[in-house]
Amino acid sequence: MIIPVPLPENSGLGVVEHRPKTPLKVKAPGIALSIVGVLDTLYAILNCLSHLNPETHSGPMPSEFRNNEFMREMWKSMSESDPVVGTLVSILMAIVGAIIIFGGIRMLKMSNYALSITASILSMLPCVTALGCCGIGQAVGIWSFVVLLSQDVKSGFIRNTA
Questions:
Q1: What is the helix (H) or strand (E) element at residue 162, kind and residue range?
Q2: What share of the chain is helix, strand, coil (3-state, %, to 5)?
Q3: What are the extents of the domains in the chain?
Q4: What's the rounded mean pLDDT across residues 62-72?
Q5: From residue 80, how far is each of 2, 54, 109, 136 by CA, in Å?
Q6: pLDDT tens-digit series, residues 84-136
Q7: Distances (CA, A) of 108 to 17, 39, 101, 117, 131
């Protein structure tokens, strides 16, 4: 929403448009949400490329994995996984990452409340986002969700859409 600000007649500038600043309360979680989306998307792209490369899942097991049962099982499951399914899951993760990025940007601009809420919820899902598995996605998602639910932020979004 652009608010026209009249200036004194002798200034020679006429009317200057003034955009309300994004509240500081929204900036930090909006930026953090966008960063989570970028990192999730980068991970998804790298994961997709690894599934498309047949040499990634072939070859002998590394020697350091032989003495660790967990790593042996992980290597076995990776070598037996279907690259098509892995690629499709990676593409889905990249799409979710892009939604999180755009939701964070819209949160900063305070222009699309529903997308911002959706992005904060998606960032918390552990099996859909890379950072959701280690707790960073949940922390940022909960933080942005709580900020978005505050009444002054809601009214800011409403003012910007009117």
A1: none
A2: 70, 5, 25
A3: 25-56+82-161
A4: 76
A5: 57, 12, 45, 30
A6: 888 888 899 999 999 999 999 999 998 899 999 999 999 999 878 888 778 89
A7: 19, 18, 11, 12, 21
